[in-house]
């Protein structure tokens, strides 16, 4: 059976072929083509299109194409259903659905950045999803012996909350550590969720958001993260030859248009305009 979808896959268009080959049709032929060619070639090649609008195998409401395959083929394997919200969260950029979604997005974006050939990318992605499936099947409750960074972040917040006698006009020591942790997450293209933090602390997220803003430029948690991403993007525009699409991925944006919109909100210019003006200023200074 032939299956066809858009080129340059990252999440759903790697997860679904993995699901097809491992649980539906081991001999399936997966075809990647430019967006506009999917439907015409699906008809001429007698291939089933997936993960594009207006076909059967696609997104429905808040569900991604991976979810639809599970429903369509009545796949009940528990490991697959542990994987489903992880894939959905990574594919829809809703990392609150599963704590592993941010990691899946980061690894998938990194693979797509390194590997330009879609079929080589699928080959590497098959191994990645084999590993995720084995974790979901055999190790979902296993813990690493070391505390991950996110747990350290929670410990910093708990320390702050326990310091009842600290004066309001004094900047607490945890803010320096928190800034470093946020910067580390920005540098590794990972996401921090205020919702996850507040749930683990068992406190109202509104209260946590208000306390965060007091020490972080009067910005909300999300605003501060976006600001940090834009600052990193500016550094890359000034110091690298990366394309705008590559910078968008390196700074954690879902795509170049999302990156352009947020960058313009923060700087008043599109990234391309910013880089063009920068090149002109460098040329003028040399002249």
From TrEMBL:
<keyword id="KW-0804">Transcription</keyword>
<feature type="region of interest" description="Disordered">
    <location>
        <begin position="266"/>
        <end position="287"/>
    </location>
</feature>
<dbReference type="InterPro" id="IPR018060">
    <property type="entry name" value="HTH_AraC"/>
</dbReference>
<dbReference type="InterPro" id="IPR009057">
    <property type="entry name" value="Homeodomain-like_sf"/>
</dbReference>
<feature type="compositionally biased region" description="Basic and acidic residues">
    <location>
        <begin position="270"/>
        <end position="287"/>
    </location>
</feature>
<dbReference type="InterPro" id="IPR018634">
    <property type="entry name" value="ChrB_C"/>
</dbReference>
<dbReference type="Pfam" id="PF09828">
    <property type="entry name" value="ChrB_C"/>
</dbReference>
<feature type="domain" description="HTH araC/xylS-type">
    <location>
        <begin position="176"/>
        <end position="277"/>
    </location>
</feature>
<dbReference type="InterPro" id="IPR020449">
    <property type="entry name" value="Tscrpt_reg_AraC-type_HTH"/>
</dbReference>
<dbReference type="Pfam" id="PF12833">
    <property type="entry name" value="HTH_18"/>
</dbReference>
<protein>
    <submittedName>
        <fullName>Chromate resistance protein ChrB domain-containing protein</fullName>
    </submittedName>
</protein>
<keyword id="KW-0805">Transcription regulation</keyword>
<keyword id="KW-0238">DNA-binding</keyword>
């Amino acid at each position: 059976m032939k299956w066809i979808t858009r080129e340059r896959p990252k999440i759903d268009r790697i997860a679904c072929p993995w699901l097809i080959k491992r649980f539906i049709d081991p001999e399936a032929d997966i075809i990647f083509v430019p967006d506009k060619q999917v439907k015409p070639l699906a008809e001429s090649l007698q291939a089933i299109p997936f993960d594009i609008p207006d076909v059967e195998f696609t997104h429905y409401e808040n569900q991604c194409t991976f979810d639809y395959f599970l429903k369509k083929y009545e796949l009940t394997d528990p490991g697959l259903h542990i994987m489903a919200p992880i894939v959905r969260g990574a594919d829809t950029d809703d990392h609150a659905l599963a704590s592993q979604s941010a990691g899946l997005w980061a690894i998938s974006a990194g693979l797509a950045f390194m590997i330009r050939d879609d079929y080589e990318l699928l080959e590497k992605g098959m191994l990645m999803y084999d590993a995720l499936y084995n974790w979901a099947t055999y190790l979902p409750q296993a813990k690493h012996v070391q505390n991950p960074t996110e747990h350290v972040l929670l410990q910093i917040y708990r320390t702050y909350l326990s310091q009842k006698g600290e004066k309001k006009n004094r900047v607490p020591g945890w803010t320096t550590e928190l800034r470093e942790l946020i910067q580390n997450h920005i540098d590794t293209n990972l996401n921090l969720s205020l919702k996850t933090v507040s749930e683990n602390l068992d406190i109202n997220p509104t209260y946590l958001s208000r306390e965060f803003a007091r020490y972080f430029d009067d910005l909300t948690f999300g605003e501060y993260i976006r600001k940090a991403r834009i600052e990193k993007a500016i550094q890359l525009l000034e110091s690298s030859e990366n394309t705008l699409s590559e910078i968008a991925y390196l700074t954690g944006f879902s795509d170049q248009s999302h990156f352009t919109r947020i960058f313009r909100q923060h700087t008043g210019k599109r990234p391309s305009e910013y880089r063009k003006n920068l090149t002109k200023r460098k040329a003028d200074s040399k002249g």
